[in-house]
Amino acid sequence: MQRQERFDERIDAGDFIEAKDWMPEHYRKTLLRQISQHAHSEIVGMLPEGNWVTRAPTLKRKAILLAKIQDEGGHGLYLYAAAETLGQSRDQMLDALHTGKAKYSSIFNYPTLNWADIGTIGWLVDGAAIMNQVPICRCSYAPYARAMIRICREESFHQRQGYDSLLVMMEKGTEAQKAMVQDAVNRWWWPCLMMFGPPDAESTHTAQSMRWGIKRISNDDLRQKFIDATVQQAQVLGVTLPDPDLKWNEARGHWDFGAIDWAEFWRVVGGEGPCNRERLNKRVRAWEEGAWVREAALAHARKQEPTAQAA
Amino acid sequence: MQRQERFDERIDAGDFIEAKDWMPEHYRKTLLRQISQHAHSEIVGMLPEGNWVTRAPTLKRKAILLAKIQDEGGHGLYLYAAAETLGQSRDQMLDALHTGKAKYSSIFNYPTLNWADIGTIGWLVDGAAIMNQVPICRCSYAPYARAMIRICREESFHQRQGYDSLLVMMEKGTEAQKAMVQDAVNRWWWPCLMMFGPPDAESTHTAQSMRWGIKRISNDDLRQKFIDATVQQAQVLGVTLPDPDLKWNEARGHWDFGAIDWAEFWRVVGGEGPCNRERLNKRVRAWEEGAWVREAALAHARKQEPTAQAA
Amino acid sequence: MSTPSVRPSTAPQVRYVLRIADTCLILAQRLSEWCGHAPILEEDIALTNMSLDLVGQARALFTHAGQLGAAETQGVALDEDQLAFLREERDYLNPTLVELPNAFYRAGAQPGDFAFTVLRNAVVSTWLLALWSRLADSSDSELVAIAGKAVKEARYHQQHAADWVVRLGDGTADSAARMQAALNEMWRYLPELFQDDEVDAFAVQAQLGPAWSSLKEEVMGQMGSLLAEAKLTPPPDSSFRTTGRNGIHSEHLGFILSEMQYLQRAYPGGVW
Amino acid sequence: MSTPSVRPSTAPQVRYVLRIADTCLILAQRLSEWCGHAPILEEDIALTNMSLDLVGQARALFTHAGQLGAAETQGVALDEDQLAFLREERDYLNPTLVELPNAFYRAGAQPGDFAFTVLRNAVVSTWLLALWSRLADSSDSELVAIAGKAVKEARYHQQHAADWVVRLGDGTADSAARMQAALNEMWRYLPELFQDDEVDAFAVQAQLGPAWSSLKEEVMGQMGSLLAEAKLTPPPDSSFRTTGRNGIHSEHLGFILSEMQYLQRAYPGGVW
Fold first, then answer.
1. Count of the separate structural domains present in chain C
2. Which member of A208, B162, C153, D90 has the greatest number of CB atoms within 10 A?
3. Could you please report the per-residue DSSP string of B27-65?
4. Does residue B33 sit at the D interface (CB-CB below 8 Å)?
5. Chain C, chain D: beta-carbon pairs less than 8 Å apart
6. Reported ipTM exceeds the 0.90 cut
7. Is residue C127 a part of any domain in this protein?
8. Which of chain A's residues have a Cβ under 8 Å away from the Cβ of D174?
9. pTM of the prediction?
10. What is the CATH number of the domain that holds C28?
11. Closest-CA residue in chain D for A48?
């Protein structure tokens, strides 16, 4: 029990835990679940954006989108690597994704239906992700914290690019483009608020994760923080957030907002969102159809070994 | 040898030969080759037109194109049925197509690259096909002649529709549309002249086919007839035929025309035209991917038999 | 700034008609992808024919929707091609089912999975048959006329598709598995065909036509019998809901439109 | 009547540059179809990265082509997006090879056949590498600058693709068969990369850049070595010839363009 006490002390002192350090099994499992889920979100998140890459309206926007998707692949790589330090291989994690045992962020189960969805994902989805992720840069598990620092920096960049692309359309675009932006915001706003997870009262993992410094701010607090930051950005942009109950509460010093449809949240988390099956199916198909490539690469590498030794 | 003499007499008298009648083996084979090739041309010909059906510019044009493709499928059906009277099953004929033993009209190895290609195929390709086919309505083999009468009637309709669609663009369309029509005519003109086959001097089957009344007008005569008819239509349309040597020869009473690139003709017939491999591959794939459907239909029909007997 | 997109009237009678028109148009578009690729020549002809019939139905409905819209706004009627080719995706009102690719998840099939195709044809033609039959009693004489012609076509489509569903469902083990897989994927898209909203309420009240919800019993009853005959088992119901009839589609429709609208978009002012 | 399509200058220097720009653009478009579907995550990243580099090269070349055209006609320069998105198909000048689908005949692969994809990447990057290297000596300082950056990217692309060709050609029996099948289909599209005409003659004479024909020995030599290392056998040469560089394409390009150009066509006057 001494190991456990030492671990607890380090956590309480705000120390970082490294991969080689002893850690409680539950801590390891919680982190593994969270990091792999985050990694899966990055690679599933390439799909809704990839859906528009062949249709990007200018070469500049196409380049920005490609660079963003490439970054997300990179984030997936770091995160899988961070999770691997906890004792599970990437293939095992992918297997959990493909068989439905592991989750990814539910937001990617919504479709991208017009070009402004791409900018809106940058502005709102990445914005919400950053709110969630910035505190993790101080996460007690050092490999995760280090990955998150790099990721957050790139996500902020993506968020600014997304917002900028919407701003161009709203300030210089045609009426049809402005309507397109408003339509995108209408569809993404509520799902983005759900990205912070269920209300604190119903959140199962929060207390223990707080104790361990894996989570540092509660779902509801992060959600409020996101709303407070976003309302003003929406005003600058000139879009209406689709919530008639949204109004400034002087007493609280925060924006009040309407009731979130948690039934929808649970429906989508439960697999019945607009794109759940298609997203997962695309990942599974890519993996299965690529099996021959991975096998050939392995076979080729094996063939090189004796040659290398003989040389 | 009496049968042969009686057959020859009937041919010379301009009588029709029916499926039940005796016929020389060479006659049967020649007809089978020609009719199955014609049937294959109808179904391969659905591909270049099908290529534009999802992109037809108006609902009226989409409906006309669909109806035309449907007619071509119907022509394929009659022609396979006519060929079957000569003792080969449709599956055997398709197998010959898929293995490259049987040919189809080389014209369908050219790509359809803009919408005006669809009208141009109607005007020029169907026009050339009609020139070739009208004489076959008097072919000595009655089942083929009967099929051709119906087919020629529908082909004439298609030709008028094709010409009409070009006329609308040339008379009422934009400059870009007119350029599109001219571009299509530039690409299709020479291949259409090749549809009548090699010059008479090099044509192998002509003499015997003439004797049998399977062919009634020579390649060169048909080609000249087509050119004479088409030049005037081109003038009405307002397009330039891409042949600087085209000019009226008062003495001959025909239009003179430039040298045909027979090397290209033989290259395409030989399998190296722009779309030969893709056309054949699409037919083969459709057939192979549909195998389970045909097997299931057969299995289902077999299951019904005992039930039918029991009832 | 000018935009070549048209905005159809949002009057309920227009939306009611456009929902049906778009259903016909988008299914026709999907079926036409089969041209020249069917498993047997007879099916090349049948699928092309069905696509042609659906285009014809769509044309009549679009023309009528344009006139209804013009009557509402006292404006100039949008014609069939403006409505078919020049709306933004958000203004297409077909249920999501008809925009799905001909092969849903099935890898490899180009242009599609024949199992999925005939099963969807069976569902949509059964549904359209019920709808056209009920539109025979519409207070709108033009709709009555359109339905009178269409009902005959739908009857043939329904019979043809149902024959295939039975043949393939009760064919080989392989064909049965393919049909069951197609059914498992497709089933959750059916509820949208039986939803209703204020547009349906208006249609009922104005005796324009039935609420889609009122078609459920008949259509699902017929589908149940057909699936039983085909020895296929519907999967359990799910809470999955599509919203194409409200203009919020799947990611597939955008690709259909970019292809379908291309010439109209790229050659403004063109006469075809 | 107005049309939103632009007509680029037909001056030989413009056509010379556009041929290269379109090659980069259309291959980038094909590679971007892989986003999120590659056999391993590292390849998702690599293919996306390659697509991004090619878009960057295309942008620089389009901008330059627009300026060359303006200098020729004393007009206003067409910008990169007008050239990329608003030409008619006939005015795209890429060789046909790059517009072929990622899976040529191979059924079932979505978005493509990895064998065909890496083999084409090997061919095109070897060819571009040779071309960029020679453009370092161009009399056009802007082309020299573009080539100086691009040559480094092409070197990485070539190395990456070549590694895969060897790995898959000399991997399993299955992978070798897939690679050989891809090679058999692709081979006949290569001659177009080494054709020349009056545009090339002008480029040579003006010291703008090499005739494409002059790249043949180097590129085919390198491909020969690579294929030998990968234990792949080129099929016999054929008389098949493609003509994309003259603007006469395969039936595939039209579909690429309807998707790629859609937003520019559907939202005239849009600012993105």
1. 1
2. B162
3. HHHHHHHHHHHHHHHHHHTHHHHHTTGGG-SSHHHHHHH
4. no
5. 52
6. yes
7. yes
8. 292, 295-296
9. 0.96
10. 1.20.1260.10
11. D36
